[in-house]
């Protein structure tokens, strides 16, 4: 009982905290009403009727905001899973298939688009991301939640990372509440009946659930109208998420990743034993969930989601600096929109304006009859010819005050302010403007998108968070499974391939999801039809300037960007591959395969013939080289022999010159 009282007090304090938050929901609702065309309240309408003025509404907010919403559809990017390194590339590819399938079946794009609409108009939208409790529906429930259903810690950042609590309140039929809380049927019945059938005379606190609920009803200071609708048999159910801080241990790896240590997790224990992680003792946040039926506490439990984040994603537009009040483009458009409606009503009223100046005896008609006849196109006014004034009684009808032109100019200025205050150019809305060239028009569109930078940045961050929540559910579902086979679609014209996650072969696991380092990101390339058309035109201009062979090679990239059905693109790609010779043999008919084999055989024979010719030429060239080497050797040896002979002759000459010539015979006889 003490715990139940503690939980009841927690809800009471949070509701009180919400009461003291700055008032912003009224202005947000007014922005949405103006967008829907409900721009005149009942008091103004009654006043216009009393003054016989026309009730006119010229809604210029809606087309201006629709132009911004159209930009979101044109620039929308896809989610995909990216691996931090090549080791887990196949894991990322498999998770990417599962992630996008869950987002597609849950209609995440539609939910994000509706949240973006609320973000632009009033400054805040919400998307719920949960497992679908309906087994016959899609796997995930991804839907928008009305801003009035959610309250949150006012100090929170845009990603709710410092949000202490988040409360969702919604009206539920009695039958639905009893089906969701079968053990609380008595409390639901008495709550809707305002405890009139409860035996209050014999009541004393027995400590059971019903007695505790009656005591909560007695001591609740909240107005019953906040949580019961007796005439509709409806009760308000509160879903409260809150954070609690507990001492814990954080494991931080060498690459900077951190996880909360779980004693029963074998991977965490292995990380500790390896000594490759840093162990940090600190306080860690834990998310819990409490359910309430009106002021009555029902259940408290740990968050049922696999992540430690709130299952509701906020789409913030902008927030006031001091108060933190969210607002969007609609707030700045309210004043010019009021000005347009007022001036148009005034201008139309002036067209019917009639002022009558007359003497008392100018006519015998009553004032009402005279006013009616003057305002009629075929009215008849009978004047009194016997009036007192000389020359007849005075009677004059004035229909122009001379201020219609000024009123019209002010109204035109207000029309321009609708776009100016939001930073939206005519080109952004598809209207004609001063820019004539395509480059100038695109520049104006880009400038309009720049003024929405803060809103679009918040939108992209929130959209990415939606993907992260779905990713957490997918990882939890597959972590304990083994040998998960996933077909990964190939690129255009390529065959899909199969990857196996948590591939367990003889006790050795590869592609382990729990160990994979992956993250959910948004694609950097837009996939809208307009973007694809622009890329196709640029590619066509570029490819046309390439040489002939290069043009055929670049056609595959061009076909991939065409905004045609997938089947048509595949057919075009196969046709391109056929002309470029890059067709996949598995896609060929038997005749085409036989023809290809024959061509390959012919090509092989031609290659062999060319190879033989090359070898013969090489042999001939080698023989010529050998002959040239032999000739060079012979020439060198001959030159050396001649050099030796010359040296010998020289030496003989020198020796002969060194011996004196013999004496003549007579000289010898004399001696």
Explain how this protein is built.
- The protein is an alpha+beta fold and 671 residues long.
- Among the domains are: 164-309, no CATH class; 356-399, no CATH class; 529-587, no CATH class; 603-671.
- It has 20 helices and 20 strands.
- The strands form 7 sheets. Strands 4, 5, 6, 7, 8, 9 and 10 form a 7-stranded antiparallel sheet that branches. A 3-stranded antiparallel sheet has the order 3-2-11, with helices on one face. It has a two-stranded antiparallel sheet with strand order 1-20.
- A hairpin with a 2-residue loop joins strand 9 (277-293) and strand 10.
- Helix 5 (89-105) crosses helix 15.
- The radius of gyration is 45 Å and the shape is extended.
- The N and C termini lie far apart (165 Å).
- The model is unreliable at 435-441 (pLDDT under 50).
List keywords for this structure.
extended, alpha+beta, 7-stranded antiparallel sheet, 671 residues
Mean pLDDT: 79
Strand content: 15-25%
| Unreliable runs | 435-441
The total count of strands amounts to: 20
Please state the overall shape, judged from the principal axes of the Cα atoms: extended
| Radius of gyration from the alpha-carbon trace, in angstroms | 45 Å
What is the helix fraction of residues, given as a range? 40-55%
Tell me the number of helical segments per DSSP (H or I, 4 or more residues long). Answer: 20
Separation, N- and C-terminal Cα atoms: 165 Å
Helix-strand category? alpha+beta
The major beta sheet can be summarized as: 7 strands, antiparallel
Sequence-ordered SSE layout with sheet pairings:
Blueprint: H1 2-19, H2 25-36, H3 42-50, H4 61-74, E1 79-83, H5 89-105, H6 108-121, E2 124-131, E3 140-145, E4 150-152, E5 165-173, H7 174-180, H8 185-192, H9 209-219, E6 228-229, E7 234-253, E8 258-260, H10 266-274, E9 277-293, E10 296-302, E11 312-316, E12 318-319, E13 326-327, H11 329-351, E14 355-358, H12 367-375, E15 395-398, H13 404-420, H14 438-450, H15 453-479, E16 484-488, E17 497-501, E18 503-505, E19 508-510, E20 518-522, H16 529-543, H17 548-560, H18 566-580, H19 590-658, H20 665-670
Helix pairs in contact: 2-11, 4-6, 5-15, 6-15, 11-13, 16-17, 17-18
